[in-house]
Design brief:
Blueprint lengths: L4 E7 L3 E7 L5 E7 L5 H16 L2 E8 L1 H7 L6 E6 L5 H4 L25 E4 L2 E2 L5 E3 L6 H10 L4 E5 L8 H10 L5 E4 H4 L5 H28 L5 E5 L5 E3 H6 L7 H17 L3 E7 L4 E7 L2 E2 L1 E2 L2 E3 L2 E3 L3 E2 L2 E3 L5 E5 L5 E7 L18 H8 L7 E2 L3 E2 L2 H15 L3 H22 L12 E5 L3 H12 L3 E4 L6 H8 L2 E12 L5 H21 L7 E11 L6 E4 L5 H16 L7 E12 L20 E7 L3 E9 L8 E3 L2 E4 L4 E4 L4 E4 L5 E4 L3
Parallel strand pairs: 1-4, 4-11, 5-6, 5-9, 9-10, 13-25, 25-26, 32-34
Antiparallel strand pairs: 1-2, 2-3, 7-8, 11-12, 13-14, 14-15, 14-20, 16-19, 17-18, 21-22, 23-24, 26-37, 27-30, 28-29, 28-30, 31-32, 33-36, 34-35, 36-37
Helix pairs in contact: 1-7, 2-7, 9-14, 10-11, 10-12, 11-12, 12-13
Length: 668
């Protein structure tokens, strides 16, 4: 039995995926049903399922949708907020922009995260430069504590005005509150940036999920053996310690999409692909992210539910288009697909579980892009008759053939996904034709060939373990810690020593959790950057900091500004934030070659399928594991494994490489 086995786990809403690998690069994978009432039980069940093959294991890398789901479903713990006197209504004032500009029947703003009676004020004031204008009145705190205790509050958020400039008052409050409340979240430790509303939302959301995350992690740690190490995936695509996850559980939000992107980036580096787009299509949503030179793009803010979160995150763009997306006719007479989804229950009509609305999966089945005789996921049988019945009203409404109606549903869904691909590439100054598409998720490989052809992309890669790709992403992600600090200064004439002292302090902050786990500075890669903008702009661009040459920084900023927006003005530039990232990879995983398959690939069967350019044709089906490396398969063809289906469209050609990846050349 192999020793030193490492396990990656992704806990999803329906299934918990596990991938294990040993030092030689051999891998094993499995899926087990998620146990929502006790998620740790599914993790243990998956480990037990893999144990006979993998033997002893030494570490567990874990990603979960627990935090994201709790926020979206508003299942976080009640939070008390303590803030600077006169600023309790920051959450209520929010921003003036509306999500739906012309929908006057909808609320103009999201409901405040904390009701007003739990938003408490304390006397103090710090200036934006960090100077203390009004001392902290700690004598007022006992009355505030008594009010929150009487409300049954177990988690408190502290967000004081300009605390990013001087955290002393927040730290004093933390020390005073911790004897009374198990969970205390302070903004200077969560998001030390300006923008009061966003910083307050981030701090409150972190406090809201602290009890949930702590209970889950304590339960998981107690159920696992004491010796193996445990790390959690965060939204920037790296791993963190259990202690860091308990203190900043909000960082685990969006870790599911981040895990898949991390695996896609690893695949791109392994195959030497300079530019790629990660494409993850599931049942409800599609997530896409740009990967340049083996590194995914990151963003400093995104919305979670209706609220802004300012934490380092991979720049994943999510849209409401998936296999379960429902097709319907708008009042205007147009065909629309998504964002409403049939989900897993009742699911698409073809599942036979009570769903009646036509979905993308039903359309794919009618077109012949899914095998009607296959049992998917070990339990899902597809009923073509139910799919046809669901699509029949659309067919009649538009006066089309059944194939044309199904193709229309797929094309509308593809158009939405194509817009997302362009959003993360073309609208950021990149040429899509220079990219490969890395497709995974249950439905990603089904649509990837058509999308790549429409986008002018020459290559699609469907990785090995694509059905458990997020678990693989946990396995290949490095330890990573990020830190940010607001520093406002004009770039021209900026004090370089102050900037570098600030970066050194942030570097120490990032290295501390690594040192706590016994890792020295050797083997750690530290990157520094500055957030720059033209003076007076609302948003900034992150630019690598490679030394004290301010003129070179300005040139790099204007080059990036021109790439993103098509112009550079030459105006004054200011710095607003300092950023540091520390990464440590214990080892670089080189996948073992896939098991050799001799002879030519023989179809396992065939069925009828419809393509606009060919009409209805007989399409061969192949088992993915039976396709020899280097053996080309010309489209149209269907390649299947237990959890996913790959369509090779007419005029395309698929080849399996020695690592088990399928590479589809899309043709001219």
């Amino acid at each position: 039995m192999a020793s030193g086995v490492r396990i990656g786990v992704d806990v999803g809403g329906t299934f918990t995926d596990l991938v294990a690998r040993d030092p030689s690069g051999r891998t094993w994978s499995c899926k087990v049903p998620t146990t929502p009432a006790a998620p740790a039980a599914a993790v243990l069940a998956g480990i037990a399922a893999l144990a006979p093959a993998m033997g002893a294991w030494t570490s567990l890398a874990h990603g979960t949708t627990l935090v994201t789901n709790a926020i979206v479903e508003r299942r976080g713990a009640p939070v008390g907020l303590i803030t600077t006197r006169g600023f309790r209504d920051v959450l209520e004032i929010a921003r003036q922009n509306r999500s739906h500009l012309y929908r006057l029947d909808l609320p103009a703003k999201a409901e405040p995260l904390v009701p007003r009676h739990r938003r408490l004020e304390i006397t103090e004031r710090v200036g934006p430069d960090g100077s203390v204008l009004v001392p902290l009145a700690l004598g007022e705190l006992p009355a505030l504590v008594a009010r929150l205790v009487s409300e049954g509050i177990e988690s408190v958020a502290v967000c004081l005005l300009h605390a990013y400039g001087n955290p002393a008052h927040e730290q004093a409050l933390r020390l005073a509150l911790e004897p009374h409340f198990r969970h205390v979240s302070v903004s200077s430790a969560i998001n030390a940036e300006f923008r009061e509303y966003e910083r307050t939302c981030t701090t409150v959301l972190n406090a809201a999920v602290m009890p949930l995350a702590t209970r889950y992690l304590d339960d998981l740690r107690a159920r696992l053996p004491a010796e193996p190490s445990l790390h959690l995936l965060h939204s920037a695509g790296g791993m963190m310690s259990v202690e860091a996850a308990k203190a900043r559980p909000l960082a685990m939000a969006m870790s599911g999409p981040a895990a898949g992107v991390a695996a896609a980036a690893h695949t791109a580096r392994t195959l030497g692909i300079a530019r790629a787009l990660a494409f993850d299509m599931g049942g409800t949503t599609t997530d896409v992210c740009l990967i340049a030179d083996g590194m995914p793009e990151t963003a400093g803010q995104r919305k979670l539910g209706e609220y802004p979160v300012r934490l380092p995150m991979l720049a994943v763009e999510s849209i409401g288009a998936g296999g379960g997306s429902i097709a319907r006719v708008e009042p205007t007479g147009a065909l629309r697909v998504g964002p409403e989804s049939a989900g897993a229950d009742p699911g698409p009509a073809c599942y036979g579980l009570g769903g009646r609305a036509p979905t993308v999966t039903d359309a794919n089945l009618v077109l012949g892009y899914l095998d009607p005789d296959r049992v998917y996921g070990g339990a899902i049988h597809l009923d073509r008759g139910r799919a046809e019945a669901a699509l029949e009203p659309l067919r009649r409404r538009f006066g089309l053939s059944l194939h044309a109606a199904a193709h229309g549903v797929v094309e509308v869904a593809n158009a939405s996904m194509l817009r997302a691909l362009r959003l993360v590439s073309v609208q950021r100054g990149y040429d899509l034709r220079e990219f490969a598409l890395i497709a995974y998720g249950g439905a990603g490989p089904l649509h990837a060939g058509a999308l790549a052809r429409q986008a002018g992309m020459g290559r699609v890669v469907v990785p090995a373990h694509s059905g458990a790709f997020s678990a693989l992403g946990c396995l290949v992600s490095p330890l990573r810690y990020d830190a940010v600090q607001t520093h406002r200064a004009a770039l021209d004439g900026a004090d370089v020593k102050v900037i570098e002292d600030g970066l050194v302090a942030l570097e120490s902050q990032c290295l501390a959790p690594l040192a706590a786990e016994g890792h020295g500075s050797e083997g750690v890669r530290v990157t520094r950057s500055l957030d720059l903008r033209y003076t007076g702009q609302n948003y900034e661009i992150s630019v690598p900091y490679e030394g004290p040459d301010l003129a070179a920084l300005r040139v790099a900023f204007e080059r990036r500004h021109r790439q993103l927006y098509g112009y550079a003005t030459g105006e004054r530039v200011e710095c607003v934030n300092l950023r540091v990232t520390a990464l440590r990879e214990d080892d670089v995983w080189r996948p073992a070659p896939a098991p050799a398959v001799s002879g030519a690939a023989a179809p396992a069967g065939s069925h009828r399928a419809f393509f606009p350019e060919t009409g209805e044709v007989t399409m061969p089906r192949y088992e993915r594991g039976a396709v020899p490396a280097g053996h080309p398969i010309a489209g149209p063809a269907l390649i299947e494994d237990e959890w996913s289906t790959i369509v090779v469209y007419p005029g395309q050609r698929s080849t399996s490489d020695r690592l088990g990846n399928l590479v589809i050349e899309t043709g001219p």
